[in-house]
Amino acid sequence: MGDLGSRQRETAERLQQLSLRLMSALSRRKAPNPGIEAPGPDLYAKTAAAWWEQMMQNPARAVGHTMGFWEGSIRAWTGAMNPGPDDAEAKPDKRFTDGEWDSNPWLNYLKRQYKVTSGAMRAAVEDLDTLPDKEKRRLRYFSDQIANLMAPNNFLGSNPEALRRAMETDGESLIQGLENLVTDLEANDGELLVKLVDDSAFSVGENIATAPGQVVLRTKMMELIQYAPATEQVHAVPIVIFPPWINKFYVLDLKPQNSLIRWLVDQGYTVFVASWVNPGPDMADTGMEDYIEHGFLAGIDAAKKITKQKKVNAVGYCIAGTTLSLTLSLLKQRGDRSVNSATLFTALTDFSDQGEFTPFLQDDFIDGIEVEVNRSGLLPARVMSRTMSFLRSNDLVYGPAIRSYMLGETPPAFDLLYWNGDSTNLPGRMTMQYLRGLCQRNEFAKGAFELMGHSLSVRDIDVPLMAVVAQTDHIAAWKDCYRGVQAMGSGAKTFVVSESGHIAGIVNPPSKKKYGHYINDDLRGDAEAWLAEASFHEGSWWPRWDAWLTERSGEMVPARKPRQSDLGPAPGSYVKVKAT
């Protein structure tokens, strides 16, 4: 009895301490920004108007929706009386894989009724024929968020695995889950961002981002790293890689076996990589022109001088691919031929179709971001992280929350998730230039993006180009990337569609023998026609890129070792600065 009483007192003390920490963390949360937290009232008004218009024009359809819902609900109830697996599904829902969802009548009913209700919500949205397509996309996104949130597995009382774990551990899993919840709130000033990874397992420069090299240039925007050679001879023309500054460059150097940087060095290239600064409020007035002037142009110029070459082969990934395209237009108008060839990874240059980002690129959301950047001088990393996470909310929000807060599990030690969480702030001016000028007004595709005294146009791009996109990319949809490449100038263009998504489609080493890719030299038709006529090739596209680069990299010369300097070794200092 004494031991039991002691454990109860310890548990009570832990809960009291956690409650105090919880209240303290929540008190630090800033007032929410309505424009970012939720859709504006305009969407609700348009939806209501479209619904009533449809009711008046086609009342039978509305009645059909209602009847369908009740019929489905009756089937859910009767089916739960004899619980068992649902009818065969094309793709089983991994949220309901626990056997209790089939064997327990109550849980079986909750699962069935949830599927009926969420299906009815989606059907109602799809049948709003009078709602403009853009507004329908937004409504579809927000209704899906509601459906995902209300799934029964997200609640402790109807999550069989969490209840079973609590019983098995005498409630310890729930106390540990509360500890995890409080810790996440404390780490984000009262904002709830679910921790996805055990970040204590990784250290930049020690067990990730370990390719040897030297920082050879530091500007206010980036550190330029030159990597040590791995071969006695190298191609004359160097490669300069510009990763996205929304995240950090070491996605290209997570570990030796999947490091694109190491692989390029092993193929005999002199490789330079930009490591972008993590902006603070003092960089509020930093714009796209600063990234170009003190990042792209400075990096290209430094690589030319160090290697004593007149040209470089430039690479841009995601937003840096978009900005490399802007840079190429600027260089063309200046008569500067410093870029021998360009490679774009999942880079958008035509934003006429906003895809899955449609909900976030309308005025109410952008106006909310403008309020935020005017208040703080930047777009905080956690706002961007949260936005990206809710595009895949079941996998990146609710699933991790269940494991952490209900099951009391420690997040996994996964290098890619660590990188994903080590994101960066965005300067206020640059954020608004990108969102208003490129995403909303699509000025670059229209030849009217005003920057640095020039009207930049996608049609100016005429250097030899390889564009690599990812087939299931939800950030830069491959068909949208294709449309932008089609609009580019008369230079030779190679277009490659890699299997998988925004990261795995690019970081796809040949040794993994995992994802294949599609090739088609005919870019005259639309994206569907291109893919229909494309040839599929097993394995990574990296060797294909190597062959393409070799033709544009000149003769072999003695390997170049990075010069030693006071700027320090790779991975540099900028990459170690955390977003605040």
Automatic annotation (TrEMBL):
<feature type="domain" description="Poly-beta-hydroxybutyrate polymerase N-terminal">
    <location>
        <begin position="93"/>
        <end position="264"/>
    </location>
</feature>
<dbReference type="GO" id="GO:0016746">
    <property type="term" value="F:acyltransferase activity"/>
</dbReference>
<dbReference type="InterPro" id="IPR010963">
    <property type="entry name" value="PHA_synth_I"/>
</dbReference>
<dbReference type="InterPro" id="IPR051321">
    <property type="entry name" value="PHA/PHB_synthase"/>
</dbReference>
<dbReference type="Pfam" id="PF07167">
    <property type="entry name" value="PhaC_N"/>
</dbReference>
<protein>
    <submittedName>
        <fullName>Class I poly(R)-hydroxyalkanoic acid synthase</fullName>
    </submittedName>
</protein>
<dbReference type="InterPro" id="IPR029058">
    <property type="entry name" value="AB_hydrolase_fold"/>
</dbReference>
<keyword id="KW-0963">Cytoplasm</keyword>
<dbReference type="GO" id="GO:0042619">
    <property type="term" value="P:poly-hydroxybutyrate biosynthetic process"/>
</dbReference>
<keyword id="KW-0808">Transferase</keyword>
<keyword id="KW-0012">Acyltransferase</keyword>
<dbReference type="InterPro" id="IPR010941">
    <property type="entry name" value="PhaC_N"/>
</dbReference>
<dbReference type="GO" id="GO:0005737">
    <property type="term" value="C:cytoplasm"/>
</dbReference>
